[in-house]
Amino acid sequence: MAPTQWELQLSSPDYPQALRDTPDPPKTLHGFGDVSLLGPSLAVVGSRRATPYGIACTRRFAGWAAAHGITIVSGAAIGCDLQAHQAALDADGRTVAVLGCGADVDYPRRAREVLSRLRTDHAVVAEAPWGCQPQRWTFTRRNRIIAGLASAVLVVEAGLPSGTFSTADFALAAGREVLAVPGSILSPECRGSNRLISQGATPITDESELREALISCGLSPFTDQNECLFDPSSPGGGPLLRALRADAMRPDDLARALKQDVVTLGRNLAALEADGLVVRYRDGRYGVA
Fold it and tell me: I need a labelling partner for 85 at 20 to 30 A (CA). Which of 31, 39, 103, 186 fits?
């Protein structure tokens, strides 16, 4: 099935209100996919030269948020951005790519497969006209759209200097919350994210802190008190499997992430393990079989 192609003018009723309210909204948005996804969301951004730590944190937090009903916005760049989109897809969640070129251009080439899937089942958006090739300055302009669409921006990993800082600056200018994952003070790749925290960004070290930060900025991850932990008829099999698909976790960490008591969660894990749907690793974590 061919992806749905569209153009949104600033005056269009479908133009995302959050972006319209920013200091410098694009006059026209070109895109593919589901326009309704251009609503409240979490932007997850980071270094193109992502370390294993940055990739792990990106997949953990983007996957968790996506599994809990939050749309993930990123820039499809190699590194943390592409991992954020992939984590959302792996969690059966929703994701939007904002490009620094035409929405019909596969850039970077390594993202071609992901972008093809997003154009059909999710959303790809750009300010640049159709067919426009990327230029260095277009990525900074792209970053203001990422920040403008999102209710909060999570910086997973960034060095100094870093283009990721422009996304954080645009987020602050638009009145958005800036979150950051702390890293080693000995790692050059973490100097930027650590600097953001020292300047007032909210540190995110686990899923419970991310949940609280999202709620405080108007995003509401669904709670599992009104939803079965395992439901084979729901997308992804229910919140427990979606959470484990995003990141393998120990029962106590999983209980905190899902707002459940450990005893109830343990019973669910035991049943799923008996059915061959989850496996327990040697370090005590559970993951999807």
Answer: 186
Give the span between the Cα atoms of 125 and 137, in whole angstroms. Answer: 17
For residue 179, the SS3 value is strand
CA distances from 122 to 53, 85, 160, 190, 232 (A): 27, 10, 32, 31, 23
Range of the domain at 265: 224-288
pLDDT score at 227? 45
In the three-class reduction of DSSP (H, G, I as helix; E, B as strand; rest coil), residue 175 is classed as: coil
Predicted TM-score (pTM) of the model is 0.79
Residues 251 and 198 in one domain: no
- Cα–Cα distance between 186 and 196 in angstroms, integer? 16
Domain count, the chain: 2
- Rounded Cα gap, residues 191 and 226, in angstroms: 41
H or E stretch at 58: helix 52-67
Last residue of a domain, one of 216, 244, 261: 216
Same domain as 255, residue 205: no
Helices 80-90, 52-67: axis angle to 10 degrees equals 40
**Maximum Cα–Cα distance across the chain:** 56
Do 174 and 256 reside in the same domain of the chain?
Answer: no
Return the number of other C-beta atoms located less than 10 Å from residue 43's C-beta. Answer: 33
Per-residue pLDDT band at 272 (split at 50, 70, 90) = confident
